[in-house]
Amino acid sequence: MHEPSPDLPFDPNPREDSIFAEAGDLPTFITNIADGDTVNLEVIRELDPGQVTVDEAIKKRLGVTFWISSAWVGFITLLALLAPLLTNLGIISDPKKTFSGAARQAPSAAHWLGTDILGRDLLSRIIWGARVSLTVGVAAILLGLIIGGTVGLIAGFFKGRLEGVMMGAMDVLLAFPALLLALAIVTFSDGREIGPVKLGRTLITVVVAIGIVSIPPIARLVRAATLVFSQREFVTASRALGAGNTRIIAREILPNVVLPVLSFSIIGVAVAIVAEGGLAFLGLSVAPPTATWGGMINEGRSALETEPYIVLIPCFVLFLTVLSLNLAGDRLREYFDVKEGGL
Question: Check: CATH 1.10.3720.10 for 70-342?
Fold first, then answer.
């Protein structure tokens, strides 16, 4: 291999005829260029390591924090799914069962997390309360994704007057404080009937109330992502090949929009769980004696000074679950973040 003279500075743009004359053949010419590029990259890396990256995709890892957060969420979800089986097997008690003479009992071998002010087992109620909180969180965000995602895709792709009408409606919803809007929906529906369905403080009512609140931010996020991807070269190429709007949205835009929306949705589940807890704390979530984390916190307020564990234990479980969802969602957002240069 031809070695450049150490006495002469490296010329990044040598004349082709001089190299051919010195090298004598094409392979040596290409090798000289590659050697020169390697030298330049090494110099840049030493001067500014941030300008040259070595296969960042290989180095990307979700990290320990993500897996610990996911493990906690998975553990809580598994307990919630198995709650009926655990109760039938006698591992946990019925969450509505009151133990005589065991009111406000501290954690013990009989009741691992203690009992509440009525003598009900806290561990059992936390596991059954997870069913309500997780159901509300996931179902409300799914409702928001279906409606808000559709609105965002249509508004971002077709633009024009249709976009103005749709996003104007989303702006109107965003103008209402989220918690107050959810309170208004639950309060308005309490005691009303729609055909054979009787509304009230039921799980469906709470899911619909929080789902409606989640529609505008999801719609805005999907619209913003759709506006970006609808201008990309692969969309233009697909349109040039004769693809219709429906095919372009389904095959070209939607798969790219899913990734940012996925990470946002995980964080949205955490927000929805907090919203349900707020409604339950105000007595406007699922009616008692159904166990909910917010309802347990509300019921234990009277014993906060004497038996703080009745409030602190469900608070701690709620805090860990919401924190884990936020950490996992934020890490996924960073992991799937697609830079402009990588598209």
Answer: yes
